[in-house]
Amino acid sequence: MIGPPRRPGSGGGLAVLVVVTVLAALAAPNAKALRGLVPPGRAVIAAPAKPPAPAIRRPPPRAARAVAFALGQRGKPYRWGAEGPGAFDCSGLTWAAWRAAGVAIPRTAAGQLAGLRRVRGRLQPRDLVIYRTNGPSRRHVAMVVGRGRIIEARNRATGVLTSGLRPGWLGAVRP
């Protein structure tokens, strides 16, 4: 006798789902209590090894000095054309930070974009991110100081501050 037609997705799929769920629970690192339910002599799926934590790259010593210098300038005022120590403009801050680390870079944001090697891949603390602006130089530069964080001398209202990396930058360079 022929029974009623089976609807797609009913019956067998549920059994497979239950088996996969039980096997996943047995393999989970935190499922030790469930492992005791498996009869002796039965094969148990070994729990996968935990992947190693991603290595946090330490910036090279000069890069670390440049980042530390820039962070030390937080709260100082913005002044167009200023190179420190009392005030900075955007490229004056990045120029002074790298100078404090013993590395010579171009003075202006446009010069830094044109004269330094482009970043390929993930941004690192020390990289310079250049934005298009309406200001006198038409360019703005900020230094990456951490994951998604930059330090910049943005304008007179904010001075030197850390903020989140904004989208829409023209390019990133690495001294």
Task: Write out key terms for the chains shown.
alpha+beta; endopeptidase fold (from Nostoc punctiforme)
Number of strands: 6
Shape: elongated
Rg of Cα set: 28 Å
Secondary-structure element series: HHHHHEEEEEE
Number of helices: 5
Query: What is the CATH topology assignment of the largest domain?
Result: endopeptidase fold (from Nostoc punctiforme)
Strand order of the largest sheet: 1-6-2-3-4-5
What is the oligomer described by this structure? single chain
Count of individual domains: 2
Structural class determined from secondary elements: alpha+beta
The poorly predicted ranges are none
Largest sheet: 6 strands, antiparallel
Instruction: Give the integer mean of the pLDDT values.
Output: 83
- CATH C-level of the largest domain: Alpha Beta
- The amount of helix comes to 25-40%
So, the CATH homologous superfamily of the largest domain? endopeptidase domain like (from Nostoc punctiforme)
- Between the first and last Cα atoms, what is the distance in angstroms? 80 Å
CATH architecture of the largest domain, by name, is Alpha-Beta Complex
**Percentage of residues in strands:** 15-25%
